[in-house]
Description:
Structural class: mainly alpha
Number of helices: 1
Strand content: under 5%
Radius of gyration: 36 Å
Shape: rod-shaped
Number of strands: 0
Largest sheet: none
Amino acid sequence: MEWNASTGLALGIVSTLTPWFFAIHSKLATLAEQTSQGAKKIDALAAATARAFEKLYEFEKRLNAQDVRLQNVGKQTSELAETLAD
């Protein structure tokens, strides 16, 4: 008799908790999918940021080269002005 009561109690608990377990499983699956999508978005943003920094580095190199050229032109202009002043 005890075995029947224990089995009945166990089945009652399982049948009561089963919908709750499925609801939790569903929520966890949704959360896992959203986390996966978020990770993909973060990876895309990281790649875009890397490309932006590469472009920024190239622009900085070009700007530094132009700065050197302008300094050379400034020196040449100063030398020309000194030559014309003499």
